[in-house]
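Input record (Table S2, row 348):
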Amino acid sequence: MKSKIQQLKDEALALLDKITDRENLEVLKTDVLGRKGKLNELMKEMMTLADDERKVIGQFANELKGSIEHAFGEKEQSIFQQEELRRAEDEWIDVTAPGNFSDAGHVHPITQAIAEIEETFKKIGFTSVRAPEIDWDYYVFESLNMPGDHPARDDWETFFVDAPEGEKGKIVLTPHTSNAQVHVMESQKPPIRVININRTYRRQADIRHLPMFHQFEGLVIDRGMTISNLKGTIDYFAKTYFGPTREIRLRPHHFRFTEPSFEVDISCGMCNGDASLNCRLCKGGWLEIGGAGMVHPNVLKAGGLDPEEFSGFAFGWGVERTMMMKEGMNIDDIRVLYKNDLRFVRQF
Ligand code: DAH
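Output record (3,4-dihydroxyphenylalanine complex):
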């Protein structure tokens, strides 16, 4: 009997020694120490022994049981420790390692151009305003000296909104940013020095035109404003935005809301204004950039100002076109700006 118990212990410890994981340990434990396990079997057998013999063997068996249980306990402990070590290794985090940065991208080239134009005018005291992008006919045409049936309106191929007319006429998608002029005069007193950059819409689409584009409109009103102020401002913008070697030129033109009116040209960055080079980008060394002029007395009146007391100048140019005239841009089709082709957009 004694040797049977001894044998059980030796076998159990030998098996225990080989075990390295929790599952097998549990199996062995039930097999040896469980309610229906081998040790209990032996204990049951012991009941058949004579009293004094049973006492001796019983004591021996209990000691053995104690030492087997102890061995199992130690094994359990060491498996637990190993599991912990393994987990620490697997789940290890280097808190000092640099993080994973998400691919944040950058703003669209036109958004960049808008910010740069705004910044350029800010430096000489202009503040930004935002006139409505969908506005009344009154602000877009009527108040700008273009009454109801005036043929000059045809130059702005306007989208009208299918909505009831109000006191100020129909609702339109603004075809230019000049609608800011009377809005501003209604809300501020001179000296006025503002820039309005916004989306504009016209029924047009080809390599030089888009149905949706952007314009920036400058408006300055004060006492004693002259064409010199207009020229100085435009020259400053050209040299700051395009570069110090660029020149400007004013050509007489006609707009209903300015008198006199001009087309503004900027010397070409490709041929440096040299007409003899027959540059393919410009016309005789000049690029046409947009309109400008001295604010018409009727527009001042519409804004509640006395043209005898105040004078001012205004200019309105396309953002896309202006941006495309920057040196090295080489964009030959305006529509590429809104194709959302990342190969294009990522170059900026
Ligand atoms: N609004 C005009 C256009 O869209 C451009 C323009 C011309 C704006 C002369 C002005 C200006 O402020 O004085 O073609």
